[in-house]
Amino acid sequence: MTVLVTGGAGFIGGHTVLALLDRGETPVVLDDLSTGTRAAVPAGVPLHVGDVGDAALVSHLIREYHIEGILHFAAKIGVPGLAADPLDYHMANARKTRALLQAAVRADVKHFIFSSTAAVYGNPDVVPIPETATPKPVSPYARSKLMSEQMLADAGMASGLRYVALRYFNVAGADPKGRHGQSIPGATRLIKVALEAALGRRSHMSIYGFDYPTPDGTCVRDYIHVSDLAEAHLVALDHLRCGGASRVLNCGYGRGYSVKEVVHAARMVAGTEFEVRHAPRRAGDMASAVVNTDNLSGLGWKPELNDLPTMIEHAYRWEQGLAASGPLRQLRLRLLDHTAKAGDARRPRSTKPIPHEATDLRRTQSGPQT
Ligand SMILES: NC(=O)c1ccc[n+]([C@@H]2O[C@H](COP(=O)([O-])OP(=O)(O)OC[C@H]3O[C@@H](n4cnc5c(N)ncnc54)[C@H](O)[C@@H]3O)[C@@H](O)[C@H]2O)c1
Fold first, then answer.
1. Ligand 1 atom index nearest CA of 33
2. How far is the CA of 115 from the centre of ligand 1 (A)?
3. Which of 22, 164, 234, 281 has the highest count of CB atoms within 10 angstroms of its CB?
4. Distances in whole angstroms, Cα of residue 312 to Cα of each of 36, 197, 354
């Protein structure tokens, strides 16, 4: 069955495209390449460069490919500590999701999987956070995601569309086979920042806040491996295909790691020290953010990569691949994008983000085992 993957050239969407392919599905990608890359879309997968808010384009794709379900990743993602351009978030996330939903409902698409965020909970009263917790988003990004969830619920009540909104926090790691990872420059995510520091691509990294009410004073987060998260999307899709009701489901491991623990693990995996500076707390950062994932497990989701060293190790291999070819690789990707945008039908399908076929990363890992 053919599914439309919006944002399928990005980090999580790209991994989900791989997971779909791995089990013999037929994904079609719609992405404006604002933060994604063409090279992230595997050979043979149609990539349509365009805006998810372009209802005419979406309607055309649904008709052309007989789309049965939509996995909606495309968004302007939340930047920790920043509340810049709040209305941009509402335009990029809520308003464009509304346009996409309208096109889906009009074309009678049955299944919709939405990338939400556990940031909708705000500062929770109970940790691990159950889905029944009252959402109290504290950022424009989280509010834009909650609005999208509410639109989904309304659309679901008024049509035959059934949906799963997946709420996750910190997504980390990279494809264990080295096919995809996080490539966007100017990263703000902790593990990527730590590994960039380990590889000397940053002079240092900062830890924001040492006085939180957590065991070591730094923020605690529920990190999830991106490949396990991709599988969660497939489990959600299967649930809908089997006639399951619309759901809102947390994704995570139900276990938190502090910033200090992540930095320590990054040093161990990379086998190197790097400078860590103390910085004041950032506005909007919660002390502890860990979700209860019993409901997702109840649908048959079985995470396989749920430990911090594995997540960091896979991300490290990916970063090493980026660092190895660094500016040259970036230039090559830009040239390939430019060529394809100029209308060259021969798309750069042979380009793979990492030129190795490592399946057992522990054997080839250069840092100490943890
Ligand atoms: N990364 C995380 O830790 C995290 C946590 C919670 C939720 N999420 C959500 O998961 C989704 C994917 O995040 P990601 O980390 O893969 O980000 P990403 O930036 O790597 O991927 C987003 C993709 O969407 C595309 N895109 C953005 N706006 C678009 C538009 N208007 N039309 C078409 N394509 C567009 C981008 O080019 C990119 O390929 C987002 O919805 C994000 O809010 C991410």
1. 37
2. 8
3. 164
4. 21, 13, 16
